[in-house]
Amino acid sequence: MFSHLTKLPADPILGLSALFKADPNPEKVDLGVGVYKTADGRTPILGAVEQAFVRLSKEEGSKVYIAPTGWPGFTEACAELVFGADLRSDLGGQLGAIQTPGGCGALRLAFELIALSKPETTVWVSTPTWANHVPTLAAAGLTHSPYAYYDHGSASVDVDAMLNSLEGAAAGDVVLLHACCHNPTGADLSMSDWKRVAELLQARKLIPFLDMAYQGFAAGLSEDALAVRQIFSSQPEALLSYSCSKNFGLYRERTGALFVKGEQKDAKEALVTNLAQLARANYSMPPAHGAALATTVLEDDELRASWIDELGAMRSRVNGLRRSLAEAFKKEGCGDRFSGVARQTGMFSLLSLTPEQVAVVQKDKSIYFPANGRINVAGLTDENIPYVAKAIASVV
Ligand code: PMP
């Protein structure tokens, strides 16, 4: 049965972590895996989450199964965070929600729902997009088409080219969009760009699917949700996959949610029961712990305020590192070649480097990031920025 299977190569990003660990160079820098890091290289448990854990350990009292839709109150708390109270209330019974194992679980379940409803759907993905999008939609039996997105020259979104490629989509196709902090480029649409995208979606009857894994990392919790709010208020149908991995630091607890807006006023029942059935056939019900922690934080005024502060501190640190790196590149004589790093948002920037240049930086300077040039800005520190800027400047 299994004897024809052969060993697969390591995942390009997870494989880098292993190489980094094995490298004895004391100056080595890990800009690979997309996790937040402190100045001393740790990915800590947030204080508010730790306090919620203490509370929960006294109050939880049972590990009996939770419902396939998730921990009580979790999706509602996330819905309010992302849609805001007014839009949440306007969406009413049009909105179906289910807790999922992380943002990846939400993506997979959404693609399965799309495949169940209309198997021939094409999903349009940005060029480039997060490396797991296409494998996940393909695993659900869907096909994809690329749309133009990132312009290396200006280190920003080429919205005209984007809209031009989406003109080729057929009515009913799904357009996968990054709600904020685009992975891997760090380049987001402006609000006026989003308006143009929304008009095109509506005119061509395309269905937006927003993937949100970094709410709070660009400009703030509400600011980062503006695109989601605009799309969900203007389009008859829409999907949103939501991850608590980064903004709550809950990575390994696999905490996320899927929201689907249906056209009918009472769409919710059909959406939720179908999603629950898909979840049942996959993993039955999502893990409870992370969602219980996030719900405890969001439902308690003090813990919520403390979490918002901690998230703000993570955001400021990453944005500060962006500015410092852009300045360091200038000092190294790179001109404006990498100045986009300061304008981009979230954990990532895509540096215009060839795979060969990335390999030299890794081999000679022990700086680790994937061959496409995506750096995790959170892996930088005030101390290593001059070293990184010099090493990269030396190969361009
Ligand atoms: N979407 C994007 C764009 C991401 O970057 C990530 C995390 N790397 C996810 C979804 C999924 O996150 P998780 O499954 O870890 O919650």
Main traits of this protein?
396 residues, alpha/beta, Aspartate Aminotransferase, domain 1, Aspartate Aminotransferase, domain 2, seven-stranded mixed beta sheet, two-stranded parallel ribbon, 15 helices, 14% strand, globular, binds 4'-deoxy-4'-aminopyridoxal-5'-phosphate
Describe this structure in words.
- The chain contains 15 helices and 13 strands.
- The protein is globular.
- The chain has helices spanning 12-22, 47-59, 74-91, 102-117, 133-139, 159-166, 191-204, 221-224, 226-234, 267-282, 289-299, 301-331, 340-343, 355-365, 385-393; strands at residues 29-30, 95-101, 122-127, 143-148, 150-151, 156-157, 174-178, 207-212, 238-243, 255-261, 348-350, 367-368, 374-376.
- The strands form four sheets. The protein has a seven-stranded mixed beta sheet with strand order 2-10-9-8-7-3-4, sandwiched between helices. Strands 1-12 form a two-stranded parallel sheet. A two-stranded antiparallel sheet has the order 5-6.
- It starts with 11 loop residues before the first helix and ends with a helix.
- 46% of the residues lie in helices and 14% in strands.
- The protein folds into two domains: 14-43 and 315-393, Aspartate Aminotransferase, domain 1 (Alpha-Beta Complex); 65-299, Type I PLP-dependent aspartate aminotransferase-like (Major domain) (Aspartate Aminotransferase, domain 2), CATH 3.40.640.
- With 396 residues, the chain is of the alpha/beta class.
- The longest helix has 31 residues, at 301-331.
- 4'-deoxy-4'-aminopyridoxal-5'-phosphate binds at residues 34, 102-104, 130, 178, 183, 211, 213, 243, 245, 256.
- 4'-deoxy-4'-aminopyridoxal-5'-phosphate (PMP) is lined by residues 34, 102-104, 130, 178, 183, 211, 213, 243, 245, 256.
